[in-house]
Amino acid sequence: MPPAVPRSDLAETVLTRLTAVYPTGADAARAVQAAAYMKGVAPFLGIPTPARRALSRTVLDGTPRPDEADCAALALRCWELPEREYQYFAVDYLRVHVGRCSSGFLPVARHLIVTVPWWDTVDLLAAHVVGPLVAADPKLAAVMDAWIEDDDLWIARTALLHQLRYREATDAERLFSYCLRQAGHRDFFIRKAIGWSLREYAKTDPEAVRDFVEGARDRLAPLSVREAMKNL
After folding, report:
1. From CA 94, how far away is CA 69, in angstroms rounded?
2. Mind listing the pLDDT tens digit for each residue in 131-176?
3. Does residue 46 come out as left (phi exceeding 0), alpha (psi in the -120 to 50 range) or beta?
4. Measured on CA atoms in the order 37, 17, 111, 72, is the torsion positive or negative?
5. Relative to the CA of 185, which of 5, 56, 58, 231 has its CA 20 to 30 Å away?
6. 28: which residues sit within 8 A by CB, 6+ positions away?
7. pLDDT in tens, 12-21
8. Domains in the chain and their CATH numbers?
């Protein structure tokens, strides 16, 4: 069951503006191309990213800072709209305001991850929403320990990627453990995420990543190894 949409006057205001302003930038031909590029996961308005973010500034002009209920209401309502750009708006909004949210926001984030899932929203939610929530409340690391074993590949991918921006604060033992726990996964998106998470951590501790990959090379998929070692 999806989380209930909280009451939020701010979300009501923003959604009214958003659904009036975004269609002014729609481009039917570009929409077809975008939907094809994203494998038909959702319809698009066809607004290129720079233009979309300019429209977003118009939508948000003069609005106050949100609280957690506002963030949840806005994101959940954007996810109910068909065109993908509305979900991009919500992700951008959450990236800015995730610091206003507590660990109680994690169920909302999970719903966003598993609803109309594709890498374009999941990866940003993993690194810029789930990651900061876990960093702010270390007890949520136990939730990530459960997510890495989840049958939903996008939840498992989120667990792999949630430390992507942690740098020196990365829990390397947990990262390497997650990589090994999913090393045999057949899906491209999991194998790619393993390599990506290792490649990103290699910018902080290249020797640790090199040693891990060399020791686990017989368990890791070739794709994961190539991605991990790309810059080493």
Report:
1. 12
2. 999 999 999 999 999 999 999 999 999 999 999 999 999 999 999 9
3. left
4. positive
5. 231
6. 46
7. 999 999 999 9
8. 1-101 (1.25.10.90)
